[in-house]
Design a protein that fits this description.
Number of domains: 2
CATH class of the largest domain: Alpha Beta
Number of strands: 11
Strand order of the largest sheet: 7-6-8-5-9-11
Radius of gyration: 25 Å
Order of helices and strands: HEHEHEHHEEHEHEHEHEEHHHHEHH
CATH topology of the largest domain: D-Maltodextrin-Binding Protein, domain 2
Number of helices: 15
Largest sheet: 6 strands, mixed
Helix content: 40-55%
Distance between the termini: 85 Å
Strand content: 15-25%
Structural class: alpha/beta
Length: about 350
Amino acid sequence: MKTHLLVAAAALLAQASSFNTHAAAPAKPIELSFSHHETTASYFRNHGLVPWMKRIEEATQGRVKIVEYPSQTLSKQAAAWQATITGVADMAWTASIFYPGQFPLTDVITLPFLPITSGETGSGVLYQLYAKFPEIQNEYRNVKMLTPHIAGPYFLQTVRKQVKTLEDLKGLKVRTIAGPPTAAMKLLGATPLLIPIPDIYLALQKGVLDGAGTTFNAALQWRYYELIKYYTYVPLYSGASFMIMNLNKWKSLPKDIQEQITSVTGMDAARRVGKAFRDEVEPSFRERLAKDGYSMTEYTLPKDEVNKWIDVGAKPVWETYIKQLEAKGLPAQKVLDETLRLLKQN
């Protein structure tokens, strides 16, 4: 009898031990899918997007795991916004250039020849504009904005001809982004073409394009430095990009996780991401060219020539932008004034 009691007690202890082991097992992390169009070899993906994802996972102490879908494997470049709204993707990195007219006030940062000196500075300004103006926030009412930043500033890269003056630019077919930059390029005398980034190489190779308004990051990732010979440094324009989340998914997260994510996706994150996209990539770009045996013929447009470009291609676009948006009841003048104030301050 005593033996049976001992066996029964041991069995109960074993069950209790098993129960405690299961109870102490860590909860399965919340998985969030993240869609973007950068390749896994992209400098920006490895130095901008991956650190951004890791900071979220670290801030949530492993309770959130981000499942990355690079290279348009979850949604196409121009479909990332809709994919996020519908829940195909929990999160996405995309840009206003894929959705002309949908982000009119955000696109203030894309106006040609703004005095943006770096991706870090411009991204900080864009974040501050989003935080200040409810009208900009309203453009993202169907998603949860996480981190806005700029892609740029862009400059001119050409195949057969160094551009040093407005006369040099006239007639050239130049890859441009949608919105105000397209209007500016027309006024400057070039022919703007809205060609997707992955197609730029072939377009340059076949002569469909003479050049592109672009960055070191894109030229490095898509290897069209193999065709580009001339680099003209002129502050053409910047793009507006952003990391967003499906609104219902955001609302479903525990409040403390929301707070943890917010703590690492704000102003500092915007500046870090913008810096990775534009400012930090240049040394790697130059190293790759040297390694692969390509050279650069570089030219910085002097201030008096830049002023000519501004008079011809920037001021009219700024005026039209303000007039059109103000007619729709949007505070374009206030947003532009604040943009210029912040850029001067930074």
